[in-house]
Amino acid sequence: MVIDSEICHGKPTFKGTRIMVWQVLEMLKAGCGFEDILKEFPSLTVGHIKAALDFAAKKVAGESLVQA
Description:
The protein has 68 residues and is mainly α. It has one domain (8-61): Winged helix-like DNA-binding domain superfamily/Winged helix DNA-binding domain (Arc Repressor Mutant, subunit A), CATH 1.10.10.10. The chain has three helices and no strands.
Protein backbone atom coordinates (compact mmCIF):
# COMPACT_ATOMS: atom_id res chain seq x y z
CA MET A 1 0.00 0.00 0.00
CA VAL A 2 1.05 3.56 -0.57
CA ILE A 3 0.07 6.96 0.71
CA ASP A 4 0.85 9.64 -1.85
CA SER A 5 -0.66 13.12 -1.73
CA GLU A 6 -0.76 13.09 -5.55
CA ILE A 7 -2.89 9.94 -5.73
CA CYS A 8 -6.52 9.82 -4.53
CA HIS A 9 -6.04 12.90 -2.32
CA GLY A 10 -3.50 11.10 -0.14
CA LYS A 11 -5.82 8.26 0.83
CA PRO A 12 -4.10 4.86 1.23
CA THR A 13 -4.20 2.93 -2.04
CA PHE A 14 -2.86 -0.37 -3.25
CA LYS A 15 0.46 0.15 -5.00
CA GLY A 16 0.11 0.54 -8.76
CA THR A 17 -3.66 1.12 -8.57
CA ARG A 18 -6.12 3.85 -7.70
CA ILE A 19 -8.10 1.42 -5.56
CA MET A 20 -8.41 2.88 -2.09
CA VAL A 21 -8.04 0.70 0.98
CA TRP A 22 -11.28 2.04 2.44
CA GLN A 23 -13.19 0.65 -0.55
CA VAL A 24 -12.08 -2.88 0.27
CA LEU A 25 -12.73 -2.39 3.99
CA GLU A 26 -16.24 -1.10 3.25
CA MET A 27 -16.96 -4.16 1.13
CA LEU A 28 -15.81 -6.42 3.94
CA LYS A 29 -17.99 -4.48 6.40
CA ALA A 30 -20.95 -4.96 4.07
CA GLY A 31 -20.46 -8.72 4.23
CA CYS A 32 -18.69 -9.25 0.93
CA GLY A 33 -16.28 -12.14 0.80
CA PHE A 34 -12.81 -12.14 -0.67
CA GLU A 35 -14.17 -13.62 -3.92
CA ASP A 36 -16.66 -10.74 -4.26
CA ILE A 37 -13.90 -8.18 -3.77
CA LEU A 38 -11.62 -9.91 -6.28
CA LYS A 39 -14.44 -9.88 -8.85
CA GLU A 40 -15.04 -6.16 -8.24
CA PHE A 41 -11.32 -5.35 -8.37
CA PRO A 42 -9.63 -7.99 -10.57
CA SER A 43 -6.20 -6.37 -10.21
CA LEU A 44 -6.17 -7.17 -6.48
CA THR A 45 -5.10 -10.41 -4.83
CA VAL A 46 -5.97 -12.11 -1.56
CA GLY A 47 -2.71 -10.63 -0.27
CA HIS A 48 -4.00 -7.12 -0.94
CA ILE A 49 -7.18 -7.78 1.03
CA LYS A 50 -5.21 -9.22 3.95
CA ALA A 51 -2.92 -6.18 3.82
CA ALA A 52 -5.98 -3.91 4.06
CA LEU A 53 -7.12 -5.77 7.17
CA ASP A 54 -3.64 -5.53 8.66
CA PHE A 55 -3.54 -1.82 7.88
CA ALA A 56 -6.88 -1.28 9.63
CA ALA A 57 -5.84 -3.32 12.66
CA LYS A 58 -2.61 -1.36 13.06
CA LYS A 59 -4.42 1.93 12.59
CA VAL A 60 -6.92 1.06 15.33
CA ALA A 61 -4.14 -0.21 17.61
CA GLY A 62 -2.26 3.06 17.12
CA GLU A 63 0.81 1.40 15.67
CA SER A 64 2.95 3.30 13.23
CA LEU A 65 2.19 2.56 9.60
CA VAL A 66 5.04 1.75 7.24
CA GLN A 67 4.73 2.88 3.65
CA ALA A 68 5.74 0.31 1.04
